[in-house]
Design brief:
The chain is 40% helix and 17% strand. The chain is of the alpha/beta class and 367 residues long.
Length: 367
């Protein structure tokens, strides 16, 4: 193999999960001699810094970088890793998760053989303490039960409503009409290969997971792609910009490349599982940024890149307690998005209902 793959890990107080994440890279079927594992410590205080130094000393493929000042979010160490990496292809791992054993090999060959700027695949949501596994959403029919006969996948359903209601009402409203452009939807599809995102806008309906993708180095460097300074939503902005600019995109619909762990115990939560006003504020800012990035693209791209995420935002807001002033802040951000994102009636109705819900909450709250 002539190419090298750089894999960037933003690290801050990962605790007991860190070794498992790094080991999932060390043991990749492609061989760790073909990897450059860049571990960027953002001033951890739990011993994570010592663990990555240990790996850097033991393995030639591992590089440990230590920030002198904590940045407070993943975007800075990810950008540090991009600036430091030398690989021909670039990937990202959240170090408390895992790559499946052949993830790097399958994604690399998909990108290389198709001369694609981006290749990506499905992922599993593993509820570590709930004893269930969900398959990530795809707008295409799959044959995962054949590919993974020993797995019992549930459909992702973050609103926790009955499956019939989710499948027939919520999901249809959330994800909208199927935008069949290049590939049919009447049977299982294994691989999607397109020249640009306008050929299959439905790809933007999937979770904007940077860690389920491999990127050609030139795509990132030539377009100066970096993670935007959002504590939440930086991955969405990066993924969208990459897909908008990519010349050649491959999606492996029947391959699980990543295990995303949902750890919901009170003493074992990631920053994105602890909802606060800053998280929702910056998440909405990322939607605004993403909408601005799509201004020169079709209405379909503008719509599907934002709308599927709005219900998730609304559900997080509804299940959290905010002060009157915090709700006023969030309302101002919703209205800011509404002022630029008015592609169709459904979009206007969706954003209108969100703003009215927040306004109603503000009216009944005490000062």
């Amino acid at each position: 193999m002539d190419d090298k793959i750089s894999i960037i890990l933003p690290i801050f107080n990962v605790g007991d999960h860190l070794r498992g994440g790094i080991d999932s890279l060390i043991n990749q079927t492609i061989g760790n001699e073909n990897l450059e594992i860049i571990m960027v410590n953002d001033c951890s205080t739990d011993g994570s810094d010592k663990i990555i130094d240990e790996y850097a000393e033991k393995y030639d493929c591992c590089i440990a970088i230590h920030h002198e000042k904590n940045s407070g979010a993943a975007y800075t160490p990810r950008n540090t890793g991009i600036d430091a990496c030398t690989g021909d292809y670039i990937m990202f791992l959240d170090p408390d998760d895992r790559y499946t054993p052949s993830a790097c090999e399958k994604l690399y060959h998909a990108a290389k053989q198709n001369n694609a700027d981006v290749a990506f695949a499905r992922f599993r949501r593993i509820f570590e303490y709930g004893n269930k596994v969900q398959k990530s959403f795809s707008p295409y029919l799959d044959s995962l039960e054949t590919t993974y006969p020993d797995e019992n996948f549930e459909t992702a359903n973050f609103l926790d409503v009955p499956d019939f209601i989710w499948d027939n009402f919520v999901e249809r409203f959330l994800y909208g009409k199927t935008l069949e452009v290049t590939y049919p939807r009447d049977g299982p599809i294994d691989t999607i290969h397109i020249d640009n995102i306008e050929q299959e806008p439905d790809l933007l309906k999937m979770a904007p997971a940077v860690w389920s993708k491999i990127y050609k180095r030139e795509l990132i460097m030539d377009n100066n792609l970096r993670f935007q300074p959002f504590v939440s939503g930086d991955d969405m902005a990066f993924s969208l910009e990459a897909l908008l600019k990519a010349k050649g995109i491959v999606f492996l619909n029947n391959f699980m490349c990543y295990d995303y762990y949902i750890r919901d115990l009170p003493d074992d939560k990631s920053i994105t599982n602890n909802v606060n006003v800053r998280l929702l504020d910056e998440l909405m800012e990322s939607y605004i940024y993403c909408r601005q990035c799509t201004e020169e693209f079709s209405e379909e791209i503008q719509t599907v890149s934002i709308n599927p995420h709005l219900l998730h935002w609304t559900n997080s807001w509804k299940n959290s307690s905010f002060t009157k002033e915090e709700n006023k802040l969030l309302l101002s951000k919703v209205n800011k998005l509404k002022s630029i994102h008015h592609t169709n009636f459904k979009t206007k109705m969706l954003l209108g209902s969100i703003s009215k819900a927040i306004e109603s909450k503000i009216q009944i709250q005490k000062e």
